[in-house]
Design brief:
It is a single chain. It contains 13 helices and nine strands. It is of the alpha/beta class. It has two domains: about 200 residues, Rossmann fold (3-Layer(aba) Sandwich), CATH 3.40.50.1820; about 140 residues, no CATH class. It has a seven-stranded mixed sheet, with helices on both faces. The protein has a two-stranded antiparallel sheet with strand order 6-7. Helix 3 links the parallel strand 4 and strand 5. Helix 4 packs across helix 5 and helix 5 packs across helix 6.
């Protein structure tokens, strides 16, 4: 799908996943991009939405899901549209695809924006270390509350990890502390329940038509990105996140390609959330240290500005397209002040209000 005023070098936006749709979830984003003068192309990922079936109308098999095929799909769409070169903005898993496209088709890239850069399966160690530093090892009220919650038989460790991580990324330690305190106080907390629905990766999210279709595309996550990594036996292991879905997908065979940015001749912008736990800022810093033309900009945000702060994402993309991306680091506070639009972007406010209401209305009994 292409929207906005047509330019010779459009912007391709690749959302995360694998499994996130490009058409339905980002209708508003494309409207905002058009208002900002951006020529945007979004391609439905194979295995998702309109790209879910083969030419006979049958769902694609897991054997059709490979990173190289997804990257070649992007090139095929550009060929069909007669487009030689593009700017690419990828978020989370989409950043892996963006970098892969740059390595496979360097002559077709004018510039790349990596939002919440995902680069290597070994980065799981960085995620583990940051999670445990914040929620397990620290001598802080939040870490003490999480440790206390982990001693309960309910909820389970995976649930605690996914909910607390999501709360922290969305609203920082203040929201995370409020959510954990409510769950310590009550077996059922509406605020905790809402975050479960948002954060957990299980059968409930395997196929939400047109929005998140993990049941086919998820094969890439397990086979090439090691979503089913072996837990290390220590508390709050992010390897547990996708464990309930592991038996539905092929085993890990290895990373499809060693991503390298040291040979990139085009501008590279890295947009980093200072509360991002799933792709910690250390990843972006490492990528920037190897790239010849990097621009690293950190904003007050969690994971994926595309989803949780789209105004910042689009403004960063526009600076890249205009060739004025070098001023982005000095614009960080301005990006932070931009209004947060969209459901996911407004979720922290909704959750904070819900937690305050719940704390007032619920009986203040001691945890049992």
């Amino acid at each position: 799908m292409r929207t906005g005023p047509h330019h010779s070098t459009p912007l391709v936006i690749i959302p995360g996943g694998p499994g996130l749709g490009s058409i339905r979830p980002y209708r508003a984003l494309r409207t905002w991009a058009t208002w900002g003068g951006l020529d945007v192309i979004m391609v439905e990922h194979r295995g998702v939405g309109r790209s879910r079936n083969d030419v006979r109308g049958r769902p694609l098999p897991h054997s059709a899901m490979w990173v190289r095929h997804v990257v070649d799909d992007l090139a095929a769409v550009l060929d069909h549209e007669g487009i030689e070169r593009v700017f690419i903005a990828g978020s989370s898993y989409g950043s892996f695809l963006a970098t892969s496209f740059g390595m496979r088709y360097p002559e077709r890239v004018a510039g790349i924006l990596l939002d919440s850069a995902l680069q290597a399966t070994e980065d799981l160690q960085l995620e583990r270390a940051l999670i445990r530093e914040l929620f397990s090892d620290a001598d802080t009220p939040l870490a003490r509350s999480v440790r206390q919650l982990l001693t309960r038989t309910h909820p389970g460790e995976r649930e605690v990890l996914d909910v607390v991580r999501a709360a922290y990324e969305l609203g920082g330690s203040k929201l995370a502390q409020a959510v954990v305190s409510l769950r310590l106080r009550h077996r059922f907390s509406p605020t905790w329940w809402a975050l479960e629905r948002y954060a957990l990766r299980d059968e409930s999210i395997a196929h939400v038509r047109g929005h998140y279709e993990f049941d086919i595309a998820g094969a890439i996550g397990f086979r090439e990105l090691n979503y089913g990594a072996m837990p290390d036996g220590l508390p709050l292991d992010p390897a547990l996140t996708y464990a309930p879905l592991a038996d539905r997908f092929p085993p890990f065979l290895g990373t499809p390609i060693e991503l390298r940015t040291d040979t990139f001749e085009w501008p590279l912008v890295l947009l980093v959330g200072d509360r991002d736990i799933r792709t910690p800022p250390a990843i972006a810093a490492r990528v920037a240290s190897h790239a010849p033309h990097p621009t690293l900009v950190e904003i007050h945000n969690g994971h994926s500005a595309l989803d949780t702060h789209p105004a910042a994402f689009l403004n960063a993309a526009r600076e890249l397209v205009r060739g004025t991306h070098g001023r982005l680091p000095s614009m960080a506070e301005r990006l932070n002040r931009l209004p947060r639009r969209g459901l996911a972007a407004r979720l922290p406010t909704f959750l904070s209000i819900a937690a305050r209401i719940e704390a007032v209305l619920s009986p203040r009994c001691s945890a049992r």
